[in-house]
Structures are given as structure tokens and as C-alpha cells.
Amino acid sequence: MLLISGARVLDPASKTDATCDVLLDGEKIKEVQPAGKLAAPVGAEVFDASGLIVAPGFIDLHVHLREPGQESSETIETGTLAAARGGFTAVCSMPNTKPVNDNAAVTRFILDRAKVGGSVRVWPIGAASVGSQGEAIAEIAAMKEAGIVAVSDDGKPIATAKLARQVMDYCRSLDLPVIEHSEDVSLAAGAVMREGVTSTRLGLRGMPAAAESVCVARDMQLAELTGARVHVAHLSAKASLEQVRWAKSRGLRVSCEVTPHHFTLIDEDVEYDSKFKMNPPLGGRGDREALLAGLADGTVDAIATDHAPHEPALKDVEFDRAPFGILGFETALGLALQQLVESGRISLMRMVELFTTGPAQVLGIERKIAAGQPADLTVFSIDHPWTYQVKESPSKSRNSPFDGRAFKGAAVATIVAGRIVYKQ
Amino acid sequence: MSYNFRDLLALEPLTADELSFLLEQSKPFQVIQKNQLKKLATLRGKTVALAFFETSTRTRISFGAAASRLGADTMNLQAEASSLKKGETLLDTVFNLNAMKPDCLVMRHAASGAPHYVARHLDIPVVNAGDGTHEHPSQGLLDALTILDRLGTIKNLRVTILGDILHSRVARSNIHLLGKFGCKFTLCGPAMWVPRELEKIAPGTPIRCVYRMEEALEGADVIMMLRVQTERLNDPPLSPNDYVLLYQLNAERLRRASPHAIVLHPGPINRGIEITPEVADGPQSCVLEQVTNGVAVRMAILYLLISGATETSTHPALEVKSKESTNASD
What is the pLDDT of residue B328? Predict the structure, then answer.
């Protein structure tokens, strides 16, 4: 048994914000009581969390763990170690591995590897189409039985509107969310950053914001046509957010996520450094403002990292040649505290929601601190100063634009199924 | 006045003073080009590595001539011969070149920013000889020198640039140089090559995008043509006939410009596409002077970066002149 004593418990589901003791028994939460009311049972370990915050375990809806197939960039073991350091208790791994997670055998492989070497829970996302090639629908039912939590052809959109419609119809019947990497690939072809004054000045090929929003519009209208649960991944453009807002106003079952780098950085930060290259690319000033507003007003449902490790040999090349993607786990909470809470944009409770109940709702699950619930908890501070040193990361890759950045507040302990998997 | 950078990667970050210094330093080398004896000993014993990761004829030859006229040796790496196709990274290729101990690296690369990336990892001067669709600093300098020769000033001119501005490194370098001397720019070409964002790439420099050539030429002092890259005509598919109809510079259209207007072109010229032979070979054209000035400008760049000379040092071209006159009296 583990008693977490004297913490400020922030639980969005019950709207609790109070100093409490939380007693864990095995993999479940046994009891939650106002501070001082719970005596530690004989033999229980006590974690004095006074001055710290205890929240439901953070969920990351969008990660790339690179296993199987690209283990030189990341493995389930190294990736989940980094996730634990970032305070995440569960991560949803995208299917664009080698081979693609488009069948139950690959799904089971991932889950087996996570059971053996994973620090946190790994919830695989299955491919929507075979090989994510956009032609035939993958074996989604078999993958669901094996344990996937959603489908996506992430890295690219479901290739055609027709197939997207069919996948949505099918997933509605299976009650699975469809996660869309919304991008008009013809508008984005060859581009390495967002189109705008900066791309024009730097002579780098840009994709317009419309490369994303045109496809979000398609996906929102298909959500209406099919009634499916449709979730927009890594939304980056103001116009895309307006499409989601429109869909929500019509009562559609749609949701979206925003990454910490999109709410922190803008295209003007790009200076031929491939650590600033990701897809979707960093947007303009107005996009970032819109994302911050969307995070505050509820249009955005979740913060997701799109953790995308690439080993230095692949990433440390000319900007044009570098693959898209950056690390995300260890800086997500620090950036959210800094950019969203400290700046006064949102409350601490709302931030916790974006890491917990928000993503949980997208997946159709519960997330709360109450007796009988899984003992997945994130313990963090909001005032501890620290500097991110990517060279100390357990990740196999080093592609972070936030190396050397100073933060206030970080994960102090990550608890998964009653076990402390990370403690500062 | 001085030039205090280790590298020459772009003209955008340079001040008017620094640019003037580079131009002033080029002038004595212009005289050298007219001498019988063009070779100096200034950089004897020094080596210039010429790494052209993208094919080039005139810029490579021009830098090669500049190096040898300064007495330096050159090492050549060309895209075809490079090991990049064998999977070596750019950085590994450059480190190998650098291990042969050159004193300066001149590089051209198809990726914008590649010289900036390489310079971050090297301890010798890096000269950008054209990076992707970003900048071509020596071209900007030689164009300015040519304008100075013909018009006597580079201040407060009306400059019109015609063609595929979006993909032009020549246009960007010219805007960043001449803009610092009060020049006003009119950019003109098919709309997909002349996006409105161009008006904001150099804060403080007046830049307007127009789509009618007649309007763009009105009152211009300098007309800069850009080569229509035939590969660009395929993406998007644009008919060469349409291009000629709307944007070819011919004698009749040229009359809309100021009477003393000059015509520049970085070459190679597509005769009969962006420019008529009549204009290309006419009295207002400066095409071949640009090429000659290219060698002078590149001599100045290599001299300054390799010798680390300052304003107070005696210019090598002047030294030689006095020697030559001594020889004459022998």
C-alpha cells in the first residue's frame, strides 16, 4: 500500500481542488480523504506530497515510440521512460512503425513489449488502412480485440474522402474514435515549413495553413455524414480550429488536440535548424493566438505531444532533408505551465483537464481520483525551477528545440497501477 | 568601415557600411581584370575549397578564377563526383574536405540554409555561392558594382525585378543589399511566382508586387531579369507562350522605363523567352559586365575572408600596380 499524504488534489472529474490524502492499494485507489483523516496502515509506504499537486495520470494521445522497426531512434522501453519523466502514465502509440500496426499480431507485439519493458501504459492506435496506404480498410475489429484504442493513418490523412467515410462508418459501428492527421497532401507536397513571410524570406518551401484546414473541413463534414467520433490530431491553424468549432456547434462527436510546440513556437522561430521542423509545421502568430484561445474556451480537448524521435544521424542534416518531428514528453508539462497557466490564459484545473479527462473523453474512458479507480497518478510541482538538458533524456534521440530552456514546475512522481515508475 | 564576420552567408544581416566596404574593396580588383598580368601573389600558399553540391558553371569558374588570380590553389568538389550519392551526409563530406586543410570553403547547395548549417560546424570561413532559393550574396554584390559603374550610384533607385521571384536567390540578395541604400522595389511576374509575402521580407524597404509588366517598368532605373527556369514552367504547368505574351522584356516595353535604365540578368539567358535578343545585346544591357565584375567581387571576398584584412591594410591590387609601374621603368 502507498499513502500519498498532504497533496493538493486536482481532480477535474469531481471538480476537487483540496488538500487530501490518497491511499493506493495494489493497482487501485483505495481511499481519498481530506488531509489528516487517513492514518497510514501498518506496512504502508508513505509519500509526503505536501506542497505538490496530485492529478489523475496524464494521458498522451499522440506519440511515436518507433518500435517495431526504427529502434535506433526510440524503443518502447526508452520512449516510456521519457514519458514517465514527463508525468505521463499512458501514451497512445501511433501505428506508423515498421511494419505498420495494421493487424492484431503487431498490436499484440507492441503490448507484449510494453508489458516487459514499458514504464507506463502503452495504448496502441491501429492503422485505418492496410499499411496506411489508403486503399483497403485494415483489420480494425481484430486489432480492437487485441487492444487498440483508436485508428489513424497518422503521418498522413486517410487518403481519400471515400475511404475516410468508410472508415468512419465502420468505426462508428465498432465504437472506436478515428484520429485524423488532416492534411491536403497536394497542397503540402515538398513543403518543409508553414508558408508565410518567414518561409518566403528564408527561401524554404512553405505549405499554406489551408493544407490543414481544407482537410479538417472534409473530416468535419464526414463526421456529420457518418456520426462517427472524429478526432483531429495536432491541430495547428486558426482556420482548422474554426472548422472544429463549427462541427462542435452542430453537436457532432468531434474533438481535437494541440501540441505544446504549436502553442509555444511560431514560424518566425525557424532559422534553418531542423529541430524546428515538424509536420504540421509551426504556424504564424495569429495561429498561436487562436490555439491559446481554443485551449481556454474548450474548443481544444487535449494537449498531446506528438513525441517524434529521430536519431541524430537522420535529423542532423540540411533543413530540407531532415525528417519531420521533435521530442515532446519531458517538456510538455513545463511548457503548459509556462505558456498557459503562468501567463494567466487558463487555470491550473483546466490544464490538468487537458492532460487527463480531456484525452480520456476522446478515448471514451473515465479518468478520476476516486476509490476503485486505477491507481494512475501524476504528482507535480508548479514552482520547482529546472532547465531541460536533452542530453540527459532517456530517449534515444535528441531532436528538441527546447534544449537548454528554463522551466518552473515539473513532474515529481509518476505512478502507474500503484507503482512509482518515476520519482525525481 | 570594415567587414567583421568570419563568413559570407547572406547579405540580409549586413549593414549599409559593411556592404559599402565590400564594394569599395572590389573596385581595385576591377582594375586588375583589365591588366595584361592578372595574377597576384596575395594568397599564395592558401587553398580555397570549391564545393558545388548543385551544378553551376559560371559561378564555379568565377570563384575559381578569383582564387587563382589571388595566387591561391583550389580544391574542387562537384555534385556528380561527390559521395553524397553513396549516402554520406553533407557534414561528413564537408569534414573530409576540411581535413585536407583548405583556408576557406566556397559552397553552393540546393537546400536553403545549407551554408549556415555547415558554417556552424566548421572553423574556416564559409562563402555562400548560392543556397537553394535563399540568397546568392556574391551575385548581389556584383550586381551592385555593375549598377555603380553604369549609373554612378546605388542610392534611391527604382529597381524592377521580373520573373520567378519566389524561387530566386538573386532577387533576395539584391533586395537586401540595394534596400539598405534606399532603393525601392517593384516585383513583377506570374502571381504564383510573386506572392504578396515578398513585400514584407525586408522591413524598411519599400517593395510592391505588381502583375502587369507595363506598370512594373514605368520609370524604372534598373531592370533585373531572372532566368525562367524551364523546370519551374512545369510546376505549375505554365505555357511559355503565355509567359512571353505577358512578361517578355522587348524593346517596346523597355521604353516605359527611365531613358537611362539599365538591364541586368544573372544568366544564363533564355533568348526569346524572358528577354529578346535585341534587348539582351542592346546598349542598356550589362550582362557581360556583370560577369567581369563577378570575378572582382569574388576576389575581394576571398581576400577579405582569408587574409582577414582591414581597411588600414594596403590593398593588394594597389601594391601590384606600383610594382607594375616599377617594372615598366626597368
Answer: 44
